[in-house]
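Sync notes, pocket subgroup
Present: LS, DG
LS reminded everyone that the earlier model was apo-only. Rerun requested with zinc ion included. Inputs:
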Amino acid sequence: APAPIIAPSILSADFASLGKACSDTIAQGADWLHVDIMDGHFVPNLTFGPPVVTMIRPHVERPKEAFGKGTFDCHMMIAEPKKWVKDFQKAGCDLYCFHYEAAFSSNAESPEARTEEITNPKALIKYIHGLGMRAGIAIKPGTKHDVLYEILDSENKDEVPDMVLVMTVEPGFGGQKFMPDMMPKVEALRKHYPELNIEVDGGLSEKTIDVAADAGANVIVAGSAVFGAEDPSDVIKKLREAVES
Ligand code: DX5
Ligand code: ZN
C-alpha cells in the first residue's frame, strides 16, 4: 500500500485562530490539512468557502511534490462540485475531493451550469486535473464502493481519481462514531488497487485506527482526536505507526 498520510481535519480546530492551528498541526507532524467544505445543502451544516482557504494558505508551505507535506485536501461536501473547482484552485487547494453522489446532481441553478461535468464524475475529474489539481472521489456510507470501479478503470488517465475517500460517518459533523461496517469497502478497493490512495474520514482515533489500517486505508483523517488531544503530536505519531505496521 502507498505511504501513510495523516490529515487532521481543521473542522475541530479553533476557528478564532485558524492560521495558527493550521501551521501548528503541520509542525506537530501532520502531512496534510483536511479542509471540510459544507454548503448546508449536500450536508446539514455550513463551514467555510474560498476566502477562508485563501487566508490560511500562507500559513502552510505549499507541497513540494504531488501529495507532499502541506497538501490542502479539500473535502467538498457540496451539491454542485463543478461550480467551485476554479475558486478553490485559486484559493490554494491541492486536492479537490468531491462526492460521487453530488457529481450526478442536476440541481445546478443556471442551465449553463448543467454541463456534462456535473453529471459525469469522469468528466469532472478531467476538469479538476486540467486546472492542475489532484482529484479525489468520496462515497457516503450508503453508497457502494463498486460504483467506483468503472471510474478507476478508465483508460483515459485524466479521468482516473488520485484518491478515493470512504466515509466512515455520515458527512456533516465532527466527533461522530466510527462505522466499522464500512471496512469491507476499503478491503475490496485495496484488493483491486494495491497502489491507490484510500482515505477514511470520520471517527478515527487511536481506538479505531487499527481496524482501518488493517482494511488497507493509508490516508487517515482525524478531527476531534487530533485537535481535542492534550498532545496532538503524539496522536499523529500513533496514527502513523498504526498504518505503517
Ligand atoms: C465529517 C467530516 C470529517 C470530520 C471528522 O463530515 O468530513 O472530516 O471533521 O471529524 P472526526 O475525526 O472528529 O470524526
Ligand atoms: Zn472530511
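DG: The longest strand covers residues 32-38.
LS: Residues 232-244 form the longest helix (13 residues).
Action: DG to write up.
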